[in-house]
Amino acid sequence: MGANFPFHQQEPKALGFSSERLSRITPWLESYIDEGKLPFAQVVVLRRGQIAYSKLYGLRDIEKKSQAIGDGIYRIYSMSKLVTTVAAMSLFEEGSLMLDDQLSWYLPEFANCQVYKSGEFGAMTLVPQESPITIRQLMTHTSGLTYGAFDPSPVGRAMRGAKVDFGNLEEKLDVMVKRLDGIPLCFQPGTEWRYGVSTDVLGRVIEIVAGQSLEAVFQERIFGPLKMKSTFFALPEHQIEKFCSLYTRTNSDPLKKLEDGQNSRFCRPVNMHSGGGGLLSSTADYLKFIEMIRLGGVYESERVLGRKTVDLMLMNHLPGDMASMGQVTFSEMPMAGIGFGLGGAVLLDPVKAQILSSEGEFTWGGMASTAFWIDRSEELSVIFMTQLIPSSSYPVRRELRILVYQSLID
């Protein structure tokens, strides 16, 4: 089944690539599947809006021996965050919210948060909040919020105790956000970088400002204009057969099935609209979305954001790199030389980051090892899709960058 990519295939040489060098991606990709490390993988490399390389290999369900399909649908998890940020920035452009607005203006329960200082769970020493959480801090993960499911700290334990879980599809977004009331922040807002539920809270702010559900906002402002017909929070019945199964890596089993694609919780109605990690999408849809970003907010005459708004998003909004903000590594990636913009990471210094890429590269990924990056200086958009948790299982993102950039010859 074809991918129906809305992009033309072009000879690599015409796009400034060495065909021989670019073809090195193929054995690299196939080895991950043949060695039983990934169920399947899909790579697409766009330059100047045209396909220089595209490869799909493996099984979307190993047990059923179902081949991966070009228009398969995947859990993109945290690649949802950039979609949510774009929606918020479209409201920013209308003057409906400002980046330095206080979160408590929209959600009063965040007006007087306590901040963790020391101690174990049950005997935490808390101090008053010194400055308010802002909308920008939600976008940059400097708000002090964390992920309860992955944080072993006393604050993470408090979140688990309060059942703060934006992956619970039975609950509603507004109810889940209210459960954060009374849970301390991990640090004073703006002083550190910590991955967490900030973007989920941002999604709730969007609902309040727009007076619509997050799903409706996405459809009106992003999915409709970009004709993203395979991106949603829950699978329509006619799309279920395209949904891929999800796997995890354990000590005893490198590919253990976590969820069957055709018997998934996403195949039923979903109450939770998680802007931090709830979206499902296809490669073609997400490529259109990141091409819109690369092109300064417009794709095929449909303008989602203004050019200067996108420029602002792709700048570093931290005082330094993420390593200097307390995040030495993230997933399989060291964070030296890498900053954070609005909705994604920004490469500040390729030498410090020890990676073959360009200053200003904008990137992020998802928990099931999906990833994208945008390099506007080289006119590149690259996407990698698979379905394996955790994303730190293998260094595929770093390896793929090397394979793509070593093949450029113009």
Walk me through the structure.
The protein has 410 residues and is an alpha+beta fold. Helices cover 25% and strands 18% of the residues. It contains twelve helices and 19 strands. Strands 3-2-1-18-17-16-15-14 form an eight-stranded antiparallel β-sheet. A three-stranded mixed β-sheet has the order 8-7-19, with no helix packed on it. α3 crosses α8. It is globular and about 60 Å long. The protein starts with 18 loop residues before the first helix and ends in a 5-residue tail after the last helix.
List the helices and strands and how they pair.
Layout: H1 19-22, H2 25-34, E1 40-47, E2 50-61, E3 66-67, E4 73-75, H3 80-93, E5 114-118, E6 125-128, H4 135-140, H5 154-161, H6 173-178, H7 198-210, H8 214-223, E7 246-248, E8 256-259, E9 280-282, H9 283-294, E10 298-299, E11 302-303, H10 307-313, E12 329-330, E13 333-334, E14 338-340, E15 345-347, H11 350-353, E16 362-365, E17 371-375, E18 380-385, E19 388-389, H12 396-405
Helix pairs in contact: 3-7, 3-8
Brief rundown of the structure:
This protein is α+β, with helices and mostly antiparallel strands and 410 residues long.
Features of the shown structure:
410 residues, alpha+beta, 3-stranded mixed β-sheet, 19 strands, globular
